[in-house]
Recover the amino acids of this structure.
């Protein structure tokens, strides 16, 4: 049976073509375990071919460090100044510069070339052990070419703090920014219901949750909750213009990978709400948390990529997409990914031979120690 996921074309801009951002070159020096490396992510040979690079290697050769370097360089290009001392809470005991800078070195350097449509931006980033990020690029021009409104909304101190929490493993949530997504290898859909207050984009609420030392809010579940609630038209100040398209796309994925759909919510005694899956075979509904790790992984990953890049296509980094997935899904992952969201650039790190072999040879990078 052909494994297909429909493309929901309704969730795209109609008034103007969205900007397209890609990274084509990356140079890394003294970053984590990487001494000195340069990589190219070339344009596909034929127009219409997937803009996908798949990296493979043995463990410990730096695939994850390459993805993290891309993430840091994009953040640096979008900011005038970054200081870890400014963005991170005082209670965080991890020395992040020590995690990022190669042992025995004073700083790490990352540089690269971004293209926004056909305009090139060269970006250089130096990370010091004091926690300061020194950037050499025309960041105002970079931000101006992109959507200025969304940079103002997304690149707040709270969101940059969450960026670093995800990058160093303090949060299981993926990094979701305009034109840029990074799914790290320790991502996880948090189990448990959601409170209605989580639907409010309010800093004080999120900080209260942090003070309570509770688990991070699941972005995937929050997007679904907002769409289900707004579809009913019962709440003010919640945009319902896209809720039907969101639920339709979600349920296409649910039908494919879980043989059911999400249509209803169930309140719990602890004042939270859980999603209920209605099976195709008519059996009793069950909670979304009852799905396998692999089902939750592939549904949430594909959904979030579609949701966050439909209007603002860009760079999508995925570390070990094969996590929890069965071998059959390995072979079809790239196809389903590109079919659902074809306008992005994908850079994927994998141990899966099936995923590595699912792209043409010119779209593969095999990292080696130089001793093989």
């Amino acid at each position: 049976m052909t494994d297909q996921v429909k493309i929901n074309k309704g969730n795209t801009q109609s008034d103007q073509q969205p900007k397209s951002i890609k990274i084509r070159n990356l140079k890394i020096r003294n970053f984590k375990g990487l001494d000195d490396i340069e990589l190219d992510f070339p344009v596909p040979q034929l127009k219409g071919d997937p803009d996908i690079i798949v990296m493979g290697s043995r463990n410990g050769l730096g695939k994850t460090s390459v993805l993290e370097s891309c993430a840091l360089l994009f953040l640096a290009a979008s900011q005038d100044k970054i200081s870890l001392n400014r963005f991170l809470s005082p209670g965080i005991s991890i020395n992040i510069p020590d995690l990022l800078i190669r042992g025995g070195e004073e700083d790490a350097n990352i540089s690269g070339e971004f293209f926004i449509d056909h305009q090139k931006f060269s970006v250089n980033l130096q990370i010091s052990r004091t926690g300061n990020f020194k950037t050499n690029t025309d960041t105002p021009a970079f931000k101006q070419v992109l959507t200025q409104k969304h940079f103002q909304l997304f690149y707040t101190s709270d969101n940059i703090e969450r960026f670093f929490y995800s990058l160093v493993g303090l949060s299981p949530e993926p990094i979701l920014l305009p034109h840029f997504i990074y799914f790290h290898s320790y991502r996880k859909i948090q189990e448990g219901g959601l409170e209605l207050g989580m639907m409010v984009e309010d800093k004080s609420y999120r900080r209260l949750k942090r003070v309570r030392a509770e688990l991070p809010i699941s972005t995937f579940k929050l997007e679904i909750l907002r769409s289900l609630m707004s579809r009913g038209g019962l709440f003010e100040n919640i945009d319902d213009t896209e809720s039907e398209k969101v639920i339709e796309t979600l349920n296409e994925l649910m039908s494919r990978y879980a043989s059911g759909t999400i249509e209803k919510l169930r309140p719990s005694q602890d004042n939270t709400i859980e999603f209920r899956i209605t099976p195709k075979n008519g059996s009793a509904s069950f909670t979304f948390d009852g799905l396998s790790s692999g089902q939750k992984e592939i549904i949430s990953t594909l959904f979030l990529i579609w949701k966050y890049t439909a209007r603002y296509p860009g760079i999508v980094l995925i570390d070990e997409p094969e996590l929890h997935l069965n071998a059959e899904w390995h072979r079809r992952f790239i196809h389903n990914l590109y079919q659902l969201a074809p306008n992005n650039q994908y850079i994927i790190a994998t141990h899966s031979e099936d995923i590595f072999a699912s792209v043409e040879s010119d779209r593969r990078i095999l990292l080696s120690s130089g001793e093989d």
Summary: The chain has twelve helices and 15 strands. The longest helix spans residues 293-309. Residues 21-366 form a domain with the Rossmann fold fold (CATH 3.40.50.300).
